[in-house]
Amino acid sequence: MNGPLFGQTLAWQRLRWIIVSIAIFGWGILIPVVYAAFSDVIRDLANSGAFPEELLSFGSGSLFTLPGAVTLGTQHPLVLAMLGIFAVGATSTAIAGERQRGTLEVLLSRPISRTTVYASITAGLLLVVACVLFTFLAGFVVGAAIQGVLDELPIEHMPMVLLNGLLLWGAFSTFGLAASVSFDRPGPAIGLTLAYLIVNYFFEILGSLWREAEWTQEFSLFHHFQPAEILAGALDPIDLVILGTAFVLPIVYALVVFPRRDLAAPA
Question: How many structural domains are present in the chain?
Answer without folding.
Answer: 1
